[in-house]
Design a protein that fits this description.
methyltransferase, MT_TRM10-typ_sf, two-stranded antiparallel sheet, 8 strands, about 350 residues, Alpha/beta knot
Length: about 350
């Protein structure tokens, strides 16, 4: 070997020795199971076991993901088939004709209501908003004098109200937003009976849940502001067993229904709750005469039987009337319908 090649050979052999030493050190530092020298800790053992399980279950997880995707795809297909009316609804929404009628919920009675009633009014407003969005002839919906307890309750429990569409939510009083000659306040104390809805007008519903504690308040307000007023023709078409007091959303929905059908009676009987016991006025006379005839026949057959039956009927009716009165006291009041 020449003297020139000797230094290079020595250098290469030194490098090989160092690599061998490093590999031997790395091999000796690796944890070896079953050997007594340098045993691994329990934590390291758990990590090794988990890693091994993770590797073994990789294919299983992949298979589960595939099955999940297939299942979701199948569910979407079934939902599209079952909800065939989805396309119909889109088609109907295209045929919507917006009414120029303005319908206002007057929220200026905030200081007259406790928190419990404020929450009821909030729910009724939510219902009005939802029904107007679904209506074939949606109105120009206004919420005026919005503030105080009502706004605070909506901020806390319904933060999405700030994103509501097709509604005008204003802190101002309605008299500051609409011309006086266009306003008609719906109040049951008004002597004027509403026959038709004028879509160029703005109708005001009193947003007051007072359990009939403030009778005549909306009529007084309309008179004080010099605003036209009227009551819905409920008494001309409907006879109810209970008090003729409806919630804000019921009045709102009746107007929406009338705009679609142009029939007051159909609008009333479509919207009125069954607990009201509403019947058409033309049928009440027939039922009354039929009842009187049946009573006379029962008296002829047996006076004692009729008296016992009448006694039992009265006992059954009295708790039912008390329960009905209790329900009526808990529902929201709006002075827009005749007594």
């Amino acid at each position: 070997m020449s003297s020139e090649m000797l230094p290079a050979f020595i250098e290469n052999s030194n490098v090989d020795k160092k690599q061998g030493i490093n590999e031997h050190q790395e091999e000796s530092q690796k944890p070896r199971l079953g050997e007594g020298c340098e045993p691994i800790s329990k934590r390291q053992m758990k990590k090794l076991i988990k890693q091994k399980q993770w590797e073994e279950q990789r294919e299983l997880r992949k298979q589960k993901r595939k099955e999940k995707r297939k299942r979701k795809k199948l569910e979407r297909q079934c939902q599209m088939e079952s909800n065939s009316d989805g396309n119909d609804r889109k088609r109907v929404r295209r045929d919507v004709v917006h009414s120029t009628l303005r319908l206002i919920i007057d929220c200026s009675f905030d200081d007259l209501m406790v928190l419990k009633d404020i929450k009821k009014l909030h729910k009724q407003i939510q219902r009005c908003y939802a029904e107007n969005r679904r209506a074939l002839h949606p109105v120009q919906f206004y919420l005026t004098s919005h503030g105080g307890q009502l706004k605070k309750n909506m901020d806390e429990n319904d933060k999405g109200w700030v994103n509501w569409k097709d509604i005008h939510i204003k802190p101002e009083h309605y008299s500051e937003l609409i011309k006086k000659e266009d306003l008609i306040y719906l109040t049951s104390d008004s002597p004027n009976i509403l026959k038709e809805l004028d879509e160029s007008k703005a109708y005001v519903i009193g947003g007051l849940v007072d359990h009939n504690h403030h009778k005549g308040l909306t009529y007084k307000q309309a008179s004080d502001y010099g605003i036209n007023h009227a009551q819905l023709p409920l008494g001309n078409f409907v006879k109810m067993n209970s008090r003729k007091v409806l919630a804000v959303n019921h009045v709102f929905e009746i107007i929406l229904e009338y705009l679609e059908t142009r029939d007051w009676q159909e609008a009333f009987f479509t919207i009125l709750p069954q607990r009201k016991g509403a019947v058409p006025t033309d049928k009440t006379c027939e039922s009354a005469s039929h009842d009187s005839q049946s009573v006379r026949m029962e008296e002829c057959e047996s006076d004692s039987d009729s008296s016992e039956e009448e006694y039992s009927r009265n006992e059954l009716d009295s708790p039912r009337e008390e329960k009905q009165d209790k329900e009526n006291h808990t529902e929201s009041i709006v002075n827009s319908l005749p007594h």
